[in-house]
Amino acid sequence: MKKTRFFAALCLAAALACGMMLAACSSGPDPEEVISQDIATQFDPIKNLDQAAVDELAQDAESGADLSDFGIDGAEYIKAMLGGFDYSIVSVNVAEDGQSATAIVNVTCKSFNAANDRANEISEEFAASDEITDMSMDDLNKKIGEILMQAMNETEPSTVECEFQYNLVDGAWTMSDSAESEIYNAFFS
Prior knowledge:
Blueprint: H1 2-25, H2 31-47, H3 51-64, H4 74-81, E1 86-94, E2 100-109, H5 112-128, H6 137-154, E3 158-169, E4 172-175, H7 178-187
Antiparallel strand pairs: 1-2, 2-3, 3-4
């Protein structure tokens, strides 16, 4: 009887030891989940047209171009530009060494190139009309603003596959600087 209790206690101790070792091995967060969460943290405010994100992007847009000269409200332009924005994470692949990863994300957004093409079409139609001859410079600038907004509103979003590189730096997964060029390529595809 003593041998049976001793054997049972030994088995229990071994099971506990194995359980603790497994828990220790898996106690860190799953890299795929961490990277997916990072992507969501960056893209969800844009997808949901979060007011703080819209305001920040509008401020950047207004500092880069004098939108007000064309009667364009920066926030309204950003909302038009981001209309239909979406993303879906296709995969997150961690390298065998566990130090780098690649996230494949389908980004759905409006293309500035397509919006520019549409603005050129609308501008040509407008230039062919007699309206332009009687316009002041202020009126012409406002018309240009209307054309830019109309073109952006009429542009349909398209989906582009983006690859985001991540590196494990000091125990934290960090998106590499190449992400900016991936986003740029998506918006200018």
